[in-house]
Amino acid sequence: MNKSIFSIFKGDRVIWIILLFLALISSIVVFSSTSMLAWKHQSGNTMFYFIKHVFYLSLGSIVIFVFSRLSYKLLFKFSTLFLAISCMLLLLTPFLGVNVNGASRWLKIPFIEVIFQPSDMAKCFLVVFLAKNLSVCQDSASRKFAFLKCAGAVLLVCGLIVPSNFSTSFLVGLMALFLMFVARIPVKYLLIFVSVCIFAFFMLIVFLKATGMENNSRLSTWTHRIEAFTNPNSKKANNSQAMQSRIAIAQGGIIGKGIGASIQRNILPHPYSDFVYAIIVEETGLVGGVFVLMLYLIFFYRCIKCVNSLERTFPAFLVVGFSLNIMLQALANMLVSVNIMPVTGQTLPLVSMGGTSIVFTSFQLGVILNITRYAEKKEDVVEIEDQQNFDDVTDYPIIAG
Questions:
Q1: Which residues contact 80 (CB under 8 A, 6 or more apart)?
Q2: How far apart are CA 151 and CA 358, in angstroms?
Q3: Rounded distance between C-alpha atoms, residue 35 and residue 33, angstroms
Q4: Taking a C-beta distance cutoff of 8 angstroms, is the pair 128, 83 a contact?
Q5: I need a surface site. Which of 66, 241, 279, 380 has the fewest CB within 10 A?
Q6: Where are the alpha helices (DSSP H) in 70-218?
Q7: H-helix or E-strand containing 105?
Q8: pLDDT by residue (tens digit) across 160-209?
Q9: Is there a contact between 379 and 73 (Cβ–Cβ < 8 Å)?
Q10: How far apart are CA 92 and CA 110, in angstroms?
């Protein structure tokens, strides 16, 4: 009986256990941190946001379960199509997007009235596109062509994201840079890529200032956040978020104030998403904060261990890219909470409240778990890039292993 139950969960068991812990922590902290939000918008119904969050966690669990069983090889064939759809949605967002908290990052799905962030979708399928093109161009003669394709895709995606979300654009670019480095793209090409990114961002700032669009864009927000971080005592700096987060961290001490005993949840903006880590530390102390950090670090270690066990480049690059997406976002959220970097608005993956983030994080985790099956079982996997025929999908089993 036990054996049949455990056999349902495909892939690395340690990662599954980590996901269970993160889901439990998420449920508790979201229930605790949404009380004030419930009083303001739901007539005191403190269960409303908790039930909604549990629904998204359940949906994420289904996504993880499905993609842990679906063959990752199918992503290879449709990588360009998925990326093109993502870019089209990003292009529509500034014109048709829903403005939330001063930024148009969301699109509303017709009929069901649910909003989602196309940037979450784009950064997932950018990894797939990069993994495909880097995996089939491993000889020195074709690396230049691979670099041009990958750099173009990264610049396009980051360029579409940056007007509304600089931090996500920066993290996506950093992930892509590291992935190309792992794929043995020459350092001189990577330096050119970084230079072009810096120049393009500089020109964007010049354009916004020259056209008088500075105050109508996110540039003023970026400037204020950097000023608040570098000079918190300045009169112009609005440092209330970072200050309240530091207070929450300080009040947590070693063992915390106890579950549900947070005070800063009623003061901090978005304690259930952007500053959820501060609430975790306030309620569970340094012990709880370190525990959550260790969960992410162990997850990343298991991913690297999986990569070292793989013989093929495409799944290895997928695991590297997806795990970097999750780790960089998690570190950004935690570093902001402890005031080591400026406020970014990044959520804590699989912990913060938010449907889009949970679903697309779950997609990445499902693919990673699927690939760990090959690493664990040492199966003789024939990669799609080695096949000559791409027309018949039945050549590649839907159920892996």
A1: 129
A2: 28
A3: 6
A4: yes
A5: 380
A6: 73-96, 118-135, 143-161, 166-182, 187-210
A7: strand 103-109
A8: 998 888 889 999 999 999 999 999 899 999 999 999 999 988 888 887 77
A9: no
A10: 14
